[in-house]
Automatic annotation (TrEMBL):
It comes from Podila minutissima. InterPro entries: Aminopep_P_N (IPR007865), Creatin/AminoP/Spt16_N (IPR029149), Creatinase/aminopeptidase-like (IPR036005), Pept_M24 (IPR000994), Peptidase_M24B_aminopep-P_CS (IPR001131), X-Pro_dipept-like (IPR052433). This is Aminopeptidase P N-terminal domain-containing protein. Signal peptide: none annotated. PANTHER family: XAA-PRO AMINOPEPTIDASE 3, XAA-PRO DIPEPTIDASE. The keyword Manganese applies. CDD domains: Prolidase (cd01087). It comes from the Eukaryota. Its cofactor is Mn(2+). Keywords: Hydrolase, Manganese, Metal-binding. Belongs to the peptidase M24B family. One of its GO terms (molecular function) is metalloaminopeptidase activity.
Length: 448
């Protein structure tokens, strides 16, 4: 499918159907351009995700109105003052904007209040009180719109899935470029810079989040972002790269972990196999109707089985007992994955009324839902040796007894392994958008 004009009217109709109202205006305020502290240096602009969903418009200081009765979508771009044109360039004309965006009408932002007041509607539906424009004659309602948008964004359209496939391919190829370059690099920052370059040159200049590049024990810090450590000539280390670029505001989120020297060996090979088994077990179980927390528990079970087989957990205890005591959360302390879309940690993880499970590890799960076709989620199991968590486990008599601490000590220098893909839930299973290789033999062949 060719990626053409962003289907803003299709998205607006989905939101309107969720609202189920016969009249009123849906109103969203786009993000404003900000400057660094007390200077005129502009910060990188990124459109607010809900606004993008209703417009496909990525420029600053704009507004959008959707009339629920007439189904007319009006984009209100920022009216650039004449004396700013020499700095910002000639703004597009109304006709150019109508040709480029899937909207019915262009009104300049300076006419926002009159466009609202002359609409004939009685209520303005907005996300936040602070968004509601001053001097409007309509009632404002900020209670209903958020859920209507969340429940639209949760189910990705064919168009959205194709954009996400494209950005997953761009980011996957960048991961491969890093694997190829690693043995000729000296530090994490070179890989960080290479990822940005390899995604930007294929059309994705923005990152969905700041890349994480951690070698050795740095991989054990889940959101490590310094990316500045030297390899110190040690190419036996594992390198964890969690990085994904953004395309048209749609995120990718991919993690690969590879040895800098291109050969999985010894404990690194053992550890990697366990995490890969965790991910494969989940990927084969995913389909509509599956409860997301059950997938987290499945990954936790595979991790305990693997760690016991590898000698990190004692052989005399049953897997069942260790799972009941939350032993899995010591080395797999985060949630299995999350929804992804316009935001890397996308909206709709917890439906209204659903609470977090207050148990180690699984309490950090970013989603508790029964999966449905059209959801896009990440599957990102990991095993880490985080000193702070291990020290706590060691000093807890209830937990400590399950571990062979000398073996844990030996594995600790590996830091950690995470493997992460983005997948679409389909009617029958999944469509994996991520194409970066993850079998050890494939990665070794690329790095040879
Ligand atoms: Mn992720």
């Amino acid at each position: 499918m060719a990626i053409t004009k962003y289907p803003a009217k299709h998205n607006a109709a989905k939101v309107a159907a969720n609202l189920g109202l016969s009249e009123g205006l849906v109103y969203l305020k786009g993000d404003i351009l900000k400057e660094r502290h007390d200077t005129d240096v502009e910060l990188t602009f990124r459109q607010e995700s809900n606004f993008y969903y209703l417009t496909g418009f990525a420029e600053h200081d704009a507004h959008v109105i959707y009339n629920l009765k007439t189904q007319k979508l009006t984009l209100l771009p920022y009216r650039l003052p004449d004396d700013h044109i020499m700095w910002m360039g000639m703004p597009p004309t109304e006709a150019e904007l109508l040709a480029k965006y899937d909207v019915d009408e262009i009104v300049w932002s300076t006419d926002l209040v009159s466009a609202i007041n002359n609409s004939g509607a009685s209520t303005l539906y907005a996300l936040h009180e602070s968004d509601v424009p001053k001097d409007i004659s309509l009632k404002a309602n900020t209670d209903l719109l958020k859920e209507a948008i969340v429940n639209a964004r949760l189910y990705k359209s064919a168009y959205e899935i194709e954009v996400m496939r494209k950005i997953n391919h761009i980011s996957s190829n960048a991961h491969v470029a890093l694997m190829k370059a690693a043995k000729n690099c000296q530090s994490e920052v070179e890989l960080d810079a290479l990822f940005r370059y390899e995604t930007a040159r294929f059309g994705a200049r923005a990152q969905a989040y700041e890349p994480i590049v951690g070698v050795g024990v740095n991989a054990a810090t889940l959101h490590y972002g310094r990316n500045s450590a030297s390899f110190n000539g040690n190419y036996d280390q594992l390198c964890l790269v969690d990085a994904g670029a953004e395309l048209g505001c749609y995120a990718s989120d991919i993690t690969r972990t590879f040895p800098l020297n291109g050969k999985y060996a010894g404990d690194a090979k053992t550890l990697y196999s366990i995490v890969l088994d965790m991910q494969k077990a989940v990927l084969s179980a995913l389909k509509p109707g599956v409860q997301w927390e059950d997938m987290h528990r499945l990954a936790a079970k595979i991790s305990v089985e693997g760690l016991q087989k590898a000698g990190l957990l004692k052989a005399e205890f049953t897997v069942q007992e260790m799972l009941e005591k939350h032993v899995a959360a010591v080395c797999f302390p985060h949630g299995l994955g999350h929804g992804i879309g316009l935001d890397v940690h996308d909206v709709g993880g917890y439906p209204i009324g659903v609470q977090r499970i207050q148990e180690p590890g699984i309490r950090y799960l970013r989603m508790r839902r029964q999966l449905e076709a059209g959801f896009v989620v990440t599957v990102e199991p990991g095993i880490y040796f985080t000193k702070f968590i291990l020290d706590e486990a060691k000093s807890n008599a209830e937990i400590s007894k399950y571990f062979n601490w000398d073996v844990v000590e030996r594995f600790s220098k590996l830091g950690g392994v995470r493997i992460e893909d983005c997948v679409v839930i389909t009617e029958t299973g999944i469509d994996n958008l991520t194409i970066a290789p993850k079998e050890m033999a494939e990665i070794e062949a690329i790095m040879a």
